Amino acid sequence: PRLLLLNWLGLGCVTEEVYVLVDTATSDCAAVSYTNVGEPFMTQYCIGCHGTMSADRKGAPNDVTLDSLENIGEHIEAIRDEIVSGDMPPSGGVTPENIELMVQWLDCEVTQ
To answer: Contact at 8 Å (CB) between 4 and 40?
Structure first.
């Protein structure tokens, strides 16, 4: 299964990776979850602007909050499109491997 090293540095809008994909040997949906992929990614790259409690949304629409699995589910296709296109996060800095991992998790969420 995929393994992640987690090191939480704060909320969103950072350009440096704080979690690292260690093993890419599988594409099994059982290996990716909100806890080990979705939440860390959202915390690092999205919640700073798309969080309910965000003090500075930097232009993010008020109706797009991504700080819960339920909220993510409401916008899952748009999130995937924005990440794949490179439009989000605007700060960039996400490795191709972690983009791939996040897209895999989003795809698994859609099929559940």
So the answer is: yes
